[in-house]
Design goal:
Blueprint (H helix, E strand, L loop, with lengths): L5 H16 L6 H12 L4 E5 L6 E3 L9 E5 L8 E5 L2 E3 L2 H7 L6 E4 L4
Antiparallel strand pairs: 1-2, 1-3, 4-5, 4-6
Length: about 110
Amino acid sequence: MNKITVEDYTHDLYGLLSRHNRRSSMTTEEMIKVLEAYREGEKIQFREIPRGPWINCDLPGWDFVDYEYRIKPAERKPREWWINFGGIFKSKKEAERFYIPGEAIHVREILE
């Protein structure tokens, strides 16, 4: 049988007190914004303070002391362009119109 010592109790008590006295890294306005966004059906992400990786969150626990929350950013579309000997162009047609047809190189950004 495990006994609870005075030291264990004191440690737990100090842990609770120190957690209680900490403040969120988010402002009240930021908290309200993310809560309203969740209510409206937007996707929410959270991370552990101080600066863990952002994680998708389907059912937030709303612990503003140990975690930060944000509205999930929209997926970025990769940028694309064509290069042909003396320039960078927005389209293949434009690249081939000004330089040698069939020599345009298609470049697409990789997002990870």
